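Researcher: We plan to redesign the surface later, but first we want a full-length starting point. Tokens attached.
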């Protein structure tokens, strides 16, 4: 066993994952903005939510409290749940540090991340591979496509825009 060595292949996989994340965030930005303008009237937020966790919480509250969006609820909640899951994995990979000292089986990557607590900090560890990163990237792309469909539905439902994604 040898330590994982950083390589162009690793950086390329991480770069693709980073770009793929944009396909998840852009539809969520649009959905959040539409809900803020058309459904909320500052009931759940004084300003348009910016951090991911606040957007997700805001969208859940708006959809749950708007009977006209009941047909949208299950689908958007699945998208929001999956966004949280993928965000956690992405966050760890982007903000973590590759352990290139510990011997690992061929193809394994250990990523350690500092976890900030109220009074103490700790290190978390995740084991992954280039194949795992590629699958995560594909999951992000698929989630982005689902988000685009949600944008289309919401845009048509509230009557603001005819949006099409080809």
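Model: Full-length starting sequence:
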């Amino acid at each position: 066993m040898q330590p994982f060595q950083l390589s162009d292949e690793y950086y390329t996989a991480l770069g693709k994952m980073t770009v793929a994340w944009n396909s998840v965030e852009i539809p969520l930005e649009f959905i959040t903005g539409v809900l803020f303008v058309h459904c909320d009237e500052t009931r759940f937020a004084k300003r348009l939510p910016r951090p991911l966790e606040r957007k997700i919480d805001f969208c859940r509250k708006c959809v749950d409290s708007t009977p006209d969006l009941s047909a949208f609820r299950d689908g958007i909640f699945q998208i929001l749940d999956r966004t949280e899951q993928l965000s956690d994995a992405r966050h760890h990979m982007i903000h973590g540090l590759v352990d290139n000292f510990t011997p690992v089986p061929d193809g394994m990557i250990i990523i350690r991340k500092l976890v900030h607590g109220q009074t103490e900090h700790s290190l978390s560890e995740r084991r992954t591979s280039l194949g795992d990163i590629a699958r995560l990237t594909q999951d992000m792309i698929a989630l982005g496509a689902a988000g685009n469909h949600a944008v289309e539905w919401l845009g048509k439902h509230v009557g603001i825009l005819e949006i099409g994604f080809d």
